[in-house]
Amino acid sequence: MHIHIFTLFPSMFNSYLDESILKRAQQANLISVHLYDIRAYTTDKHHVTDDAPYGGGGGMVMKAEPIFAAVEAVSNEPSAVSHQQTPIILLSPLGRTFNQEIAKELAQHEQLMLICGRYEGVDERVREHLVTDEISIGDYVLTGGELPAMIMVDAIARYIPNVLGAENAASEDSFATGLLEYPHYTRPPEFRGWAVPEILQSGDHAKIAKWRRQQALRRTLQKRPDLLASASLSEDDKKFLATLKDGS
Predict the structure, then answer these.
(1) Residue 38 CB coordination number (10 Å)
(2) Could you report the per-residue pLDDT of 16-63, keeping only the tens digit for each?
(3) Choice among 10, 50, 66, 93 that is catalytic
(4) 223: which of 11, 75, 130, 155 lies 20 to 30 Å off by Cα?
(5) What pLDDT score was predicted for residue 165?
(6) Are 4 and 111 in contact (CB under 8 A)?
(7) 65, 120, 133, 134: which one is catalytic?
(8) Residue 224 bears catalytic tag
(9) Per-residue pLDDT reduced to its tens digit, 64-97
(10) Is 182 left (phi over 0), alpha (psi -120 to 50) or beta?
(11) Which residues 6+ apart lie within 8 Å of 231 measured at CB?
């Protein structure tokens, strides 16, 4: 997968992209992340990328021209997938809220383009005539779209085959199944008097799988009961939840 990120601050990404799983994924050519400085696509002497809003008001607005120029230049590269096939996503508080399903959906594309907004936002013509999607990472305000872009890259990359190493790792993450993830333990078997549950040391994989499923249900009921309304639940799951709710 090729991810193209358009930003005023490309250096913000380097420390995160050059560590851990994302670094190894790039080295293995499983993903590539290309950073484009929007300032490089201006045509004026001072490389101006923002201006005062029409109608007055505080703050500055990112200009349409350099954003269009940057995206169109990359779209027209010989190696680029056609403009119509590649999602062009504006990181914006007006967008749909990013979640695990959207990460999985976007991971199916060969290429993605992410535009990082700044200041008071972008010229409305970018939203109306250039982008194909808008995504928000939550109901709060950040100073720019760079952090949301990093979050999206991380979450999407986990669905690229072989990025995580373990074949089913992404499908077992919290939210991937519609539930929060079950508890994890590692050595030593006892720490300060707190022991690892015996069932996890039993070697009985069927019982371990059942225990993990029930713990995921228990944890979701306790911490995020709203998720249960849309989770895919078996009859055994529903019976187990019923015992938790009636305290038996």
Answers:
(1) 24
(2) 999 999 999 999 999 999 999 999 999 999 999 999 999 999 899 999
(3) 93
(4) 155
(5) 79
(6) yes
(7) 120
(8) no
(9) 999 999 999 999 876 655 556 899 999 999 999 9
(10) beta
(11) 177, 178, 179, 220
Question: Residues 193, 155: contact at Cβ < 8 Å?
Answer: no
Name the residue type at position 127.
R
Model confidence at 241: pLDDT above 90: yes
Task: Looking at the chain, list the stretches that DSSP marks H as alpha helix, in order from N- to C-terminal side.
Answer: 14-17, 20-27, 64-75, 100-106, 124-129, 146-157, 205-223, 235-245
What 3-state DSSP class applies to 244? helix
So what's the pLDDT on residue 175? 72
Q: What is the model's pTM?
A: 0.88
Q: Annotated catalytic, 18?
A: no
Q: Which of 63, 82, 84, 68 is nearest to 36 (CA)?
A: 68
- Percent of the chain beyond pLDDT 70? 93
120 is catalytic: yes
Indicate which residue of 65, 173, 181, 237 is catalytic.
173
Count of CB atoms within 10 A of residue 239's CB? Answer: 10
Q: What is the mean pLDDT of residues 202-213?
A: 97
Residue 219 appears among annotated catalytic residues: no
Coil/strand/helix, residue 91: strand
Ramachandran bin of 59, using left for φ above 0, alpha for ψ from -120 to 50, beta for the remaining angles: left
Ordered structural domains, the chain, with CATH: 2-157 (3.40.1280.10), 174-245 (1.10.1270.20)
For residue 70, give both structure tokens.
């940057």
Average pLDDT value for residue range 126-133: 97
Residue among 213, 192, 191, 188 at smallest CA distance from 201: 188
* pLDDT for the residue numbered 125: 97
Buried b (16+ CB within 10 A) or exposed e, 72-83: eebbeeeebeee
